[in-house]
Amino acid sequence: MSIILNDFVIKVGSSITKSIHHNPKSPTDYLKNRNSELIVLSTVTDVEVNEIILNLDSSKCIGSNITPVKLLKILGPKMSHPLASMINQSFTISIIPFTLKMANVVSIFKKGYPEIPSIYRPVYRPLSNI
């Protein structure tokens, strides 16, 4: 069953792409009343990062390395400064680390016959919550 479901997920993107009609318009043609103002992000503080860590759900794991939230909460005060520095640097240079762009896609069975891949609902779960 897992091979059938995997084959379906792999092929669904190309089949959807084939059904999309080509539009000669540029995406910028749809931008009306463009906002010329810049978006400014304020710097993140150690206190804010530590507060976010303390508010994480301890019953879940985060990150691609499966670091337990309980451990993050213990290390939070020590980690908050380096994390805040990395976040601020990421904003400054406009580069988001690759690992923050990754997600697990889990297929959830809805109802009907489990042998039919199209009845599964994809659920996207980020690999990192920080």
Q: Can you describe this structure?
A:
This protein is an alpha+beta fold and 130 residues long. The protein has helices at 2-19, 46-54, 69-93; strands at residues 61-62, 67-68, 103-109, 120-126. Strand 1 (61-62) and strand 2 (67-68) form a beta hairpin.
Specify Rg, calculated over alpha carbons.
21 Å
Strand coverage percent: 5-15%
Strand order of the largest sheet: 1-2
The largest pleated sheet is described as: 2 strands, antiparallel
The H/E string reads HHEEHEE
The number of strands is: 4
CA-to-CA gap between the ends? Answer: 34 Å
Helix content: 40-55%
Quickly list its features:
two-stranded antiparallel ribbon, 130 residues
Structure, briefly:
The chain is an alpha+beta fold. It is built from 3 helices and 4 strands.
Helix and strand arrangement:
Elements: H1 2-19, H2 46-54, E1 61-62, E2 67-68, H3 69-93, E3 103-109, E4 120-126
Antiparallel strand pairs: 1-2, 3-4
Helix pairs in contact: 2-3
